[in-house]
Specification:
Arc Repressor Mutant, subunit A
């Protein structure tokens, strides 16, 4: 895991210097990741995930909107809700950013049986569940 985490970190930092997301801070990048990868991201959902105030998230989101990195999309079901999405501009950077991941997935599909891939996916789900439970426990401690 240490080696994997190291390689992911190197990839992220290298991409920020060379190819994409060049002028984006790490903090901004993390917010963009939250918006991109959370289903139906809202200011409230991000504030809840991070256990910070909605006002703080609103300020950051408004900054990202001004920079043209994020857009607000009004919910069709409830007009009071605005979902957050990354813009096409930053989506292009994500395509570059995730080339190593897509390459790894293709390699895994070629190299391993579906049964082994399924087990690997179960392991990843366990990691995700553990992170989620630890985050929840940490939130309750505070």
């Amino acid at each position: 895991m240490d080696r994997l985490w190291y390689e992911i970190t190197v990839n992220q930092l290298r991409n920020r210097q060379d190819k994409c997301m060049k002028d984006i801070s790490c903090n901004t990048s993390m917010y963009l990741d939250l918006i991109k990868f959370r289903d139906k991201a809202t200011v409230s959902s991000i504030a809840d995930d991070l256990d910070i105030s909605k006002a703080a998230v609103t300020m950051k989101v408004n900054e990202l909107v001004k920079q043209g990195l994020v857009k607000k999309v009004q919910s069709e079901e409830d007009k009071r809700i605005n979902y957050l999405e990354v813009t096409d501009t930053i989506s292009e950077d994500y395509e570059i950013y995730f080339r190593p991941l897509r390459h790894a997935i293709e390699t895994i599909r070629e190299k391993y049986t579906q049964e082994k891939i399924d087990v690997f996916c179960e392991v990843l789900e366990t990691f995700s569940d553990c992170f989620q439970s630890c985050n929840k426990a940490h939130k309750e401690e505070l």
